[in-house]
Amino acid sequence: MIKQQWQQTDPELYQFYTQELKRQQEGLELIPSENYVSEAVLEAMGSILTNKYSEGYAGKRYYGGNEFIDSIERIVEDRAKKLFGVPYVNVQPYSGSPANLAVYFATCKPGDTIMGLDLSHGGHLTHGSKASVTGQIYNSVPYHVIANGSQHGYIDFDELATLARKHKPALIWAGITAYSRTVEFAKFAAIADEVGAYLAADISHIAGLVVGGAHESPVPHVHIVTTTTHKTLRGPRGAMIMVTERGLVKDPELSAKIAKQVFPGSQGGPHDQTTAAIGIALLEASKPAFKQYAKQVVKNAQALASSLMKQGVRIVTGGTDNHMMLIDLSDNPGCGIFVQEALDMAGMTLNKNTIPGEPMSPFFPSGARLGTPAITSRGMKEGEMTQIGEWIATVLKTVSTYKLSSDTAARQEYLKTFRADMKKNATIKTVREQVRTLCKQFPLYADIEQT
């Protein structure tokens, strides 16, 4: 009924909704930060809960009529506490970046030294990148992955320890956005404890793997945990901040400080429809089927990486322990844009990405990031991963002759030529039809019509 009203009220916007639905249903979503929520989560996100204003926390609101909202929020908090094994959870942050900012405000003063994995080495903007406010308010000292040798691409804990001893950070982030190996939280904890720093784990990418038993939990090792609620957790676009028992030992007021920095410190009332949808996703994640899902995500990622490497595609670190991998395209610097756009035309969506030691810019990087959360949600397994890897390798060979011009002014014209070529390319068209056929075998949102 709501969809029909939307179509009748605003057909101009609705046409793009239906086109996006078709794109999702008929293509392979390989961006590792994307997933497909359940129809129950979709229903909550489009519910009448969006009408309510509820500044404050349960039992301490600034508006009346919140008795039912209070019940929802308390239930969601309790589900998160039980699922992650923590004593405090805040489910109000609008998304991951505001959640991380609240952690900074609760633990650091402007000018304090903070440490996070360098952005081009697989970290996140909010872990201290100079492009982010976090790298402007605070003195950011990034750590990196190992540059050479058998451990190339793995986090360099020797460097991290040396830098931490020298700079004495107030806060260290253990978090990733383009890192395919296990995050070794115990090693982070040893360094943070030695220098007296807060240790925050940003598990936005791996939260679903953590609760599903497919990745070790940071909770025994860190003081604070932040996570988005989409990605591998398969919920709506929201976030949570958790304080562990270790965090409360370090500062008994830590949870109160974080609560204050979320509201009123950095945002207004929570989005109650999102809170409810997070609760549904957490309930789904507590079921045995979700543990099977999380483990299959990793199996699929490893099968996909293996398929790609058999086709001669280089993967940073030579494989994966989690849900994602990073293709190394440095033999053709800057060609990530060609790979992303050609695969998009072939019905496979991933994102261009910098690689460790990136020789080009983030706009024209020499890598591509992909993962398996969404295609695993469709029910695909190792056999499909082998086929998808072969398709990707075919497209990579198709675009291998295209070279990014060193003349930045000429790049846009060259890209226009490239796009025109790909639209006519027979190989791209053939792969696109094969992808569409595979997607029909694993239907997505079958009850939602492309009208």
List keywords for this structure.
globular; Aspartate Aminotransferase, domain 2; 2 domains; Aspartate Aminotransferase, domain 1; about 450 residues
Written overview of the protein:
The chain is α/β, with parallel strands linked by helices. It folds into two domains: 44-285, Aspartate Aminotransferase, domain 2 (3-Layer(aba) Sandwich); 299-441, Alpha-Beta Complex (Aspartate Aminotransferase, domain 1). Helix content is 46%, strand content 11%. It has helices spanning 2-9, 11-26, 39-45, 67-84, 96-107, 134-137, 157-167, 185-195, 207-211, 245-250, 254-262, 272-285, 288-310, 336-345, 373-377, 382-399, 411-424, 426-441; strands at residues 28-29, 56-57, 60-61, 88-90, 113-115, 139-140, 171-175, 198-202, 224-228, 239-243, 324-328, 348-349, 351-353, 367-371. α5 packs across α11. The longest helix is centred in the middle third of the chain and has 23 residues, at 288-310. The protein is globular. The model has no long low-confidence stretch (mean pLDDT 97).
SSE blueprint:
Elements: H1 2-9, H2 11-26, E1 28-29, H3 39-45, E2 56-57, E3 60-61, H4 67-84, E4 88-90, H5 96-107, E5 113-115, H6 134-137, E6 139-140, H7 157-167, E7 171-175, H8 185-195, E8 198-202, H9 207-211, E9 224-228, E10 239-243, H10 245-250, H11 254-262, H12 272-285, H13 288-310, E11 324-328, H14 336-345, E12 348-349, E13 351-353, E14 367-371, H15 373-377, H16 382-399, H17 411-424, H18 426-441
Parallel strand pairs: 1-12, 5-6, 5-7, 7-8, 8-9
Antiparallel strand pairs: 2-3, 4-10, 9-10, 11-14, 13-14
Helix pairs in contact: 1-2, 3-12, 4-12, 5-11, 7-8, 13-16, 14-16, 14-17, 16-18
